[in-house]
Amino acid sequence: MSAWDREAYDKARAHQQQLTKPPGALGRLEELACWLAGCQGQAIPDRLQAAVTLFAGDHGVAEAGVSAFPQVVTVEMVKNFAAGGAAVNVLAKAHHARLRVVDVGVAGDLSALGDAIIHAKVAHGTANIIDHAAMTTEQMARALQVGRSQADAAIAGGANLLIAGEMGIANTTPAAALISALLGVSPEAVVGRGTGVDDQGLRRKIAAVAKALARAGEVGTPDRCLAQLGGLEIAAICGFLLRGAERGVPALLDGFIVTAAALVAERMAPGSARWWQAAHRSQELGHRLALSALGLKPLLDMGMRLGEGSGALLALPLLQSAVALHTDMATFSSAGVSTEVG
């Protein structure tokens, strides 16, 4: 993992004290600018070039009725992403972020989409975690590598800020199972309504997570936890975040699914969370627990639960504003403004 630059952070903090404003008047924007300085290793960070990589995969647990939508929606939404019609497309365009969509585990044939998406399918979805491990060890390793390779590709394309998105009907269930297992909390404390299941659907989700945890037993290492309870797109996001931290490129985390992947990544490589900011707080019940475990405070709380990377893209202008203010504001000396009090 790259070393986060404390000296650059301290120099950025000293620079903030010279800008034409009362100390701390810009609140968290000041800290964001200094954090980015530490990430980039320079007191005045470069402007942000964000890349969004959306990983798509399906889940065998969908057959347990844990989602308000049928599994075919994953295929249909990937086609929508390719056509530019989804929320993430709109937000990426609005905020000038490059978007790539990766099929890492969709239970359908997407070959007709050609180069509109990246074809990196490891399997046609995971097994049902109620009865079986989600992935084999080899499948998990391949999915992790897909994510790592996509981080490398984003960085090679000029990105200095990474955003992971996801799509996969029923994926809030394995995400909840991962958080429950890693934090040692009950399914009832983590499981939320996902795509909007009713009370009966919520009870099915809680039962599914409880059965999956009982079947998996002591999950042990984060690698085993991921293979037993995770998803192909979740593993890919984990690899994506790990590779970014290794290369010293920060990431802006989206919601519940991405944060579950981040929790696994932090357990695999402690200290990785130093390279991340939490974009927003999801409506999903266990998101607060996962963010707290990572030591991250969300930038926004908009009552969202869409996924795709949408919450991260909404928060992106906050980071861009932080850099602009840090870089372009006059100092007291350059503006001829007195610093004397009284």
Could you give the topology of this structure?
Layout: H1 6-16, H2 28-40, E1 50-57, H3 72-83, H4 87-94, E2 98-105, E3 118-119, H5 137-156, E4 161-167, H6 172-183, H7 199-216, H8 222-229, H9 232-246, E5 251-253, H10 256-268, E6 276-278, H11 287-294, H12 310-328, H13 332-335
Parallel strand pairs: 1-2, 1-4, 2-3, 5-6
Helix pairs in contact: 1-2, 2-12, 5-9, 6-7, 6-8, 6-10, 8-10, 9-10, 10-11
Structural account:
The model has no long low-confidence stretch (mean pLDDT 95). This protein is globular. α5 packs across α9 (232-246), α6 crosses α7 and α10 packs parallel to α11. The protein is built from 13 helices and six strands. Helix content is 47%, strand content 9%. It folds into two domains: 6-46 and 324-335, Orthogonal Bundle (5,6-Dimethylbenzimidazole Phosphoribosyltransferase, Chain: A, domain 1), CATH 1.10.1610; 50-317, Nicotinate-nucleotide-dimethylbenzimidazole phosphoribosyltransferase (CobT), large domain (Rossmann fold, 3-Layer(aba) Sandwich), CATH 3.40.50. It has 342 residues and is α/β, with parallel strands linked by helices. It has a four-stranded parallel β-sheet, sandwiched between helices. A two-stranded parallel sheet has the order 5-6.
Q: How many domains, as an integer?
A: 2
For the biggest sheet, the summary is: 4 strands, parallel
Order of strands in the sheet with the most strands?
A: 3-2-1-4
Individual helix count: 13
Radius of gyration, in Å, reads 20 Å
Indicate the CATH class of the largest domain: Alpha Beta
Measured by DSSP, the beta-strand proportion falls in: 5-15%
Mean pLDDT: 95
Task: Give the tally of β-strands.
Answer: 6
Q: Could you state the CATH homologous superfamily of the largest domain?
A: Nicotinate-nucleotide-dimethylbenzimidazole phosphoribosyltransferase (CobT), large domain
Q: Please mark out the parts with pLDDT under 50 across 5 or more consecutive residues, or reply none.
A: none
Structural class: alpha/beta
How would you spell out the order of helices and strands?
HHEHHEEHEHHHHEHEHHH
